[in-house]
Amino acid sequence: MNRLKAKINDVFWSKYDALVRDVVIPYQRDALNDNVADADPSHAIRNFRIAAGEEEGEFYGMVFQDSDVAKWLEAVAYSLENHPDPELEKEADEIIDLIGRAQQEDGYLNTYYIINGLENRWTNLKECHELYCAGHMIEAAVAYYNVTGKRKLLDIVCKFADHIDTVFGPEEDKLKGYSGHQEIELALIKLFRATKNKTYLDLAKYFLDERGKRPYYFDIEWEKRGKTEHWPGHRRRGPEYDQSHLPVREQSQAVGHSVRAVYMYAAMVDVAMETGDEKLLEACRRLWNNIVYKRMYITGAIGSQAHGEAFSFDYDLPNDTVYAETCAAIGLVFFANRMLEVEPKGEYGDVMERALYNGVISGMSLDGKRFFYVNPLEVNPEACAKNGNMEHVKPVRQKWFACACCPPNIARLLASLGHYIYGVKDNTIYTHLYIGNNTEVEMDGIKVGLTQKTNYPWNGKVSIDINLDGSKDFGLGLRIPGWCSDAKVSVNGQQIDIAGVIVDSYAIITRSWQDGDRIEVDLPMEPVRMRSNPLVRANVGRVAIQNGPIVYCLEEVDNGPNLQTLVLPKDAALVVSFQEDLLDRVNVITAKGERVKEEDWGKELYMANPCTQYEPADLTFVPYYAWVNREPGEMTVWVWEK
Amino acid sequence: MNRLKAKINDVFWSKYDALVRDVVIPYQRDALNDNVADADPSHAIRNFRIAAGEEEGEFYGMVFQDSDVAKWLEAVAYSLENHPDPELEKEADEIIDLIGRAQQEDGYLNTYYIINGLENRWTNLKECHELYCAGHMIEAAVAYYNVTGKRKLLDIVCKFADHIDTVFGPEEDKLKGYSGHQEIELALIKLFRATKNKTYLDLAKYFLDERGKRPYYFDIEWEKRGKTEHWPGHRRRGPEYDQSHLPVREQSQAVGHSVRAVYMYAAMVDVAMETGDEKLLEACRRLWNNIVYKRMYITGAIGSQAHGEAFSFDYDLPNDTVYAETCAAIGLVFFANRMLEVEPKGEYGDVMERALYNGVISGMSLDGKRFFYVNPLEVNPEACAKNGNMEHVKPVRQKWFACACCPPNIARLLASLGHYIYGVKDNTIYTHLYIGNNTEVEMDGIKVGLTQKTNYPWNGKVSIDINLDGSKDFGLGLRIPGWCSDAKVSVNGQQIDIAGVIVDSYAIITRSWQDGDRIEVDLPMEPVRMRSNPLVRANVGRVAIQNGPIVYCLEEVDNGPNLQTLVLPKDAALVVSFQEDLLDRVNVITAKGERVKEEDWGKELYMANPCTQYEPADLTFVPYYAWVNREPGEMTVWVWEK
Q1: Any catalytic annotation for residue A484?
Q2: With bands split at pLDDT 50, 70 and 90, how would you rate the model's confidence at B38?
Q3: Which of B316, B386, B484, B486 would you mutate first to test chain A, the one with the most A CBs within 10 A?
Q4: Residue A85's Cα: distance from chain center in Å?
Q5: In contact, B438 and B6? CB cutoff 8 Å
Q6: CA distance B630 to B395
Q7: Which one, A29, A332, B151, B396, has the greatest CB density within 10 A?
């Protein structure tokens, strides 16, 4: 399936689009230039200046600091696509020029090693993220080239990729390595698609194919460099940590560092698509199923533990000690989006939607200035401060991070969201996401314009207007979300019996479309109580409220402290009201709940039955993604039911 | 209150007494001598030989390895008290001789520093446990002296304590330090009581008084020794970790490393008793209340987190990530026992009983050969292996530990249990624990013999026969456990109205007792559902089954996997049956429960309501302390109620 790109004009997402442009990109530029007060310094731009020999100084920051610049550039590219901005483009061009000046004669480009000694490059692929940084720079270059047509950064990364191709490969004199943090693989596919140079596809495939071979490459390089470690203790994380425990085609379980995992799975789908490698695709399907049916939070977050920022095991989904890195949810969107390119199945769209509206955007404050790395589903601020198991969980979003992977990652995804709405395959235009937008696609040489309008996710009414010169036979696939059981579709006011045309949760309406045709989709939204599989220990006895794609939570600011003392009676009505003035406009859900009467307990810690009494309590649920944009406090997604 | 010592002859505890004698002491002797196959080596005895110059070699083991020998000797002393054993006594004497040969001229005694360089002694009190090891050796010496009358070890430790007194104190040329791990304080009180030498009481008080002063002593010594660390990273644990954050008299919350905490609180009670320091006693009461009403598990375990093996905060009592070190529960018994010496209040006895019958003996297997360091209340073996938050939790007891503090600690407590049953104060003999035993006490010059018989904890019927020459006026205080609401007491078959004579949960029967009088106590036991205070997040919606002092649990071996899918209906009867052949004879509790029908779920991870169906399931509860003495598997104390 080919992706379309659409211009977003949406009640929900246009705000994010504007935020990225007006706040996040300038803010992150300031951060990269160390101009944000009271935040961890970045030093990322200075590293390039030092590497270019234009400034004295030492490398500072994470070994992968370069990638923050790359992700920012990528976000800028997508933003320019939506909103041309000569001033911003000039800034980007200047940074690209700087990057070019830092690049070495042979094409090598990584400020950490340029500054600290090129003799050590490619000696610690496990820990030092050289190929990861290269990947991000390539992604930025492709995006910038696609949007602006400017080749400068593309040429820089082609030269770098060509250099990498001289270092890694099956030939005897080359290293048989691969990146400790996957990213270059999916980047090389993009570079291949932009340049049509098959070397890059072959190199991506090579990196995937080497992974999981024995002896373990990271042991070999460790011996070779004299058994040093960049991060002491890092080595004891075994091959599962970086998904090198098995050849990729033999993997069935999502293990290890969750961002690495989903970046790799996304690249596996890409390579499978480009090469027709069915065995690779089967592995992607198995890994997808393992994540989505056994290792994913209801928010679309993944990564159950801080140890190794990793998956743990099937159905292990603790809400409070969770990792749920913003980047991992973003990576799941990448994976889902690529699976959709392979085959239009509703479940891919459902998961993409679930992650986007919940676990991804929860990573950024509504003002675009603060970020979560970790996105817990249950928070008690006192526990974050006083119980080491929650040490990694911050009860409020942070300005910037020493390890700043998430903020620019969320920016580049939001800025490119227009690429995720539609796909075209076999004479059918598939609508994966319901987001107000307009786009144009050529079907057999005929330009077809689509204008989508909706108040999604606040209600499920969507209209799509078709604009074309005359008429054209083609299919229009409409994703019927998994949460919706009674979807209705009409064309020009005429309801269609969709039961017969639903294939893999897409209603496919094939007809001769005329200019001015209007499709109306009605996806009735009602708040529902979601339960999780009883094998999920953390959620026994609890429900989560979901309305359409939006997962809700209780916050202390609305419901008082000790959220665990609140219960939602089974028969309590869930009442939706749209609040113009709250949290940038949201649907709030209220219910008549109950609260355990604490006073009956006095000072006792344990008492014999019976002793739990309840009193009425009004419950207010707000969208999870918007939590802690007011007073900090407790939060929970899963609520006790009675 | 003065403690009595009783000879145990009990259906429940005599087995432990025999185990300590026949299994634990020989096993631990073998361990200390590195003669246990497949277990972590100890090297503790060899360290003494090397320190004595009788063997070549290096120090091996933890910096506090000496304390394992001391705790073993202390256990041997108590065991000899119960069961004279010339062979064992000879072995102990030989080790004591060895210890004497390792002692330095000036009295110093610590194999780590003797072997590695005496010039570094007393330079790292925060991390290196010199005073802690000294404390355990003193405790062993006092016990050995009290039981055998032999002064050799007592003389050794007096010489060592005198040396310590030359090093620490208010005088200008002395160090103003104190131990990073409290223990010497309570040991010095014992030494004071054994020798009547007030120097030792003053030194104990000095160590308590210095604690919490600013500047922080551990910063001073760190600067002085050139900012080195014994355990890299240890230093970032702030003063709360070792309870040096405030002067002890100003402390109100149980914080930091839980073993250090309760050892210190126990010493604080001792010093308060000896000096009449009311302010110190008030701090003990506050700390007691904080633990018992806000920071204690239902098993009497303490220490909610592995990070720092520490308390966390009020009502934070996670069941699966818990630390609950065996030594901490033992330390809570010490603290409770000393509070009882100050004032006979039932709540002290209740907590002592709760810890003893649950969180302490859970630390040892029924065969006395394997031990838990961590005593979780909920275990999923897969989580222990695959989720880093449970890395410290072992799903089966271990043979020995690199850090072997718990096994000898449990041995010395069990061997000395006869000291915990009674106390005498103001012409009243208080019965704190119901354990079959006989003892003798002098009341005003008249010898009174007491013979207690009971099947406790399997039922609550207790008889106490009085044996004396003629008659004697005195009080007999009988603890009415908190779990018992309808206790009955009769004397010579005549029921007594105890309502009027209960003071602080002790029924006090004062009369002229005659030889042959028989007191019968009936404490009807019925299994009850315990709930925890709703502020305890981990236990919302769940109950724990308790019968008398025994807390129960569900094990996978009886109930199948996925214990979280089991529910106990509110109206389900709890049926007790005594099982002769199970787990060394226990009361088992069964109930007609239900189980979530998993098959309704298929592969779904999340579904909209309604979707939880139940099927009948027989539930079998066994005593918590006896868990995983059969097949390893899941376990939970807290069970879902419906």
Answers
A1: no
A2: confident
A3: B386
A4: 26
A5: yes
A6: 12
A7: A332
Q: Does domain A422-522 have CATH number 2.60.40.1180?
A: yes
Give the nearest chain B residue to A382 (CA atoms): B313
- B637 neighbors B552 (Cβ within 8 angstroms): yes
pLDDT at B402: 59
C-alpha–C-alpha distance, residues B154 and B160, integer Å: 10
Residue of chain A whose alpha carbon sits nearest to that of B293 = A605
Say yes or no: A543 contacts chain B, CB-CB below 8 A.
yes
CB contact (8 A) between residue B606 and residue A383: no
What does the DSSP assignment read for A137-174?
Answer: HHHHHHHHHHHH---HHHHHHHHHHHHHHHHBSSSTTS
Of the residues A128, A284, A384, A405, which is catalytic? A405
Q: Is A286 on the interface with B (CB under 8 A)?
A: no
Is B130 one of the catalytic residues?
no
Q: What is the pLDDT of residue A236?
A: 84
**Res A52: pLDDT:** 97
The partner residue sitting opposite B533, judged by closest CB among A483, A536, A601, is A601
Chain B residue closest in CA terms to A604: B293
Non-local (6+) Cβ contacts of B554 within 8 A are: B563, B566, B619, B620, B621, B635, B636, B639
Q: Does B306 touch chain A (CB under 8 A)?
A: yes
Going by C-alpha positions, the residue among B122, B118, B159 that lies closest to residue B137 is B159
Query: Are B536 and A605 a contacting pair at CB < 8 A?
Result: yes
Q: What is the pLDDT of residues A472-521, one digit of tens each?
A: 999 999 999 999 999 999 999 999 999 999 999 999 999 999 999 999 99
- Report yes or no: A499 at the B interface, CB cutoff 8 Å: no
Long-range contacts (CB closer than 8 Å, 24 or more residues apart) made by B89-93 = B89/B148, B91/B29, B92/B144, B93/B150, B93/B152
CB contact under 8 A, B605 and A531: no
pTM given for the model:
0.95
Give me the mean pLDDT over the A264-279 stretch.
98
Domain ranges of chain B: 10-38+251-416, 43-224, 422-522, 528-641
Q: Taking each helix axis from N to C terminus, what angle separates A152-167 and A184-195, rounded to the nearest 10 degrees?
A: 120
Q: CA-based Rg of chain A, rounded to a whole angstrom? A: 25
Question: What count of residues does chain A have?
Answer: 642
